Each structure stands twice: as structure tokens, then as C-alpha cells.
From TrEMBL:
The lineage of its organism: Bacteria, Pseudomonadati, Pseudomonadota, Gammaproteobacteria, Vibrionales. InterPro entries: Asn/Gln_tRNA_amidoTrase-B-like, GatB_Yqey_C_2, YqeY/Aim41, YqeY/Aim41_N. PANTHER family: ALTERED INHERITANCE OF MITOCHONDRIA PROTEIN 41, MITOCHONDRIAL (PTHR28055). This is Glutamyl-tRNA amidotransferase. Coiled coil: none annotated. GO terms for molecular function: carbon-nitrogen ligase activity, with glutamine as amido-N-donor. It comes from Vibrio cincinnatiensis DSM 19608.
Length: 147
């Protein structure tokens, strides 16, 4: 089943269960997906949808950090609940060992020899691990290997 179909089915289930928080989060996700489809005049595939969901999770994590810094735990809890719902539709996160194995394979494939090859390595890695690992952390690991 396509990811968009799964989201729509979960939306129906949340409506029937009268779970307003879950329903609201799923609607936000569907809205963001639809907005990107309209803006770019394309139909998003599962990888593109995962990219949208990843962006939404990252935004919410940033919000949680800001709310906690401002001592607004009530708002941070709402954002954390939304992250939990969004992560249900994303692929399972990779372990540290799996990420390192992907990096090694990408460096071998791109024949990376230094920092000038970072873009090549990241271009190979991004489609493989999108939505399954924090790209910022992956970038740091690649940079450490290339130095």
C-alpha cells in the first residue's frame, strides 16, 4: 500500500476513534504533501512523502527545543506527540553500525579521497537513508571520515 493511502486510511480511523490530536497531525501531514504537489505540479512518490514527513519532524524537534528553553513544557509536549504520530509513517531508523556501513559503501563507490568528494558521498547516501537517519549527524560522520 502506498504511503499516501496509509495516511488517508489512518485519517479515517482517527476520525472514527475521535482522536483529535492524531487526526490533526495526520491532516497537517496530508496538507503539507498536497501543498508540495500543487507547488511543484507533480504527484509525490513514497520517497518524496518521506522527505516531507522528515522535514515536519525536524521542524517539530526544533520547536520542542525552543519551547523547553522558554519553559513551555505544555507546548513542547504537544510537539512531541506530533513527532510520535509522524514517525509511525516513516521507515525504521538505522542503527549507528548500519549508518557507518552505508557511509563506507558510499565512499568506496564514489572513490572519495578528501573533503572535495563530500558532495559525491552525500548524493549517494541521501536516497538510501532519507527519513531513516538524521542527515546532519550523517554529514558529520562523513566529514570525520574524509578528513
Amino acid at each position: 500500500m502506498a504511503l499516501i493511502d496509509t495516511l488517508k486510511e489512518e485519517q479515517k480511523l482517527a476520525m472514527k476513534a475521535k482522536d483529535k490530536a492524531r487526526l490533526g497531525t495526520i491532516r497537517l501531514a496530508l496538507s503539507a504533501i498536497k501543498q508540495r504537489e500543487v507547488d511543484e505540479q507533480i504527484t509525490l512518490n513514497d520517497d518524496d512523502i518521506i522527505a516531507v514527513l522528515t522535514k515536519m519532524v525536524k521542524q517539530r524537534r526544533d520547536s520542542v527545543a525552543q519551547y523547553e528553553a522558554a519553559n513551555r513544557q505544555d507546548l513542547a509536549d504537544v510537539e512531541t506527540a506530533e513527532i510520535t504520530v509522524l514517525e509511525e509513517f516513516m521507515p525504521q531508523p538505522l542503527t549507528e553500525e548500519e549508518i557507518k556501513a552505508f557511509i563506507e559503501d558510499a565512499m568506496t563507490e564514489s572513490e572519495a579521497s578528501g573533503m572535495q568528494d563530500m558532495g559525491k558521498v552525500m548524493a549517494i547516501l541521501k536516497p538510501q537513508i532519507q527519513g531513516r537517519a538524521d542527515m546532519g549527524k550523517v554529514s558529520g560522520l562523513v566529514r570525520a571520515k574524509l578528513v
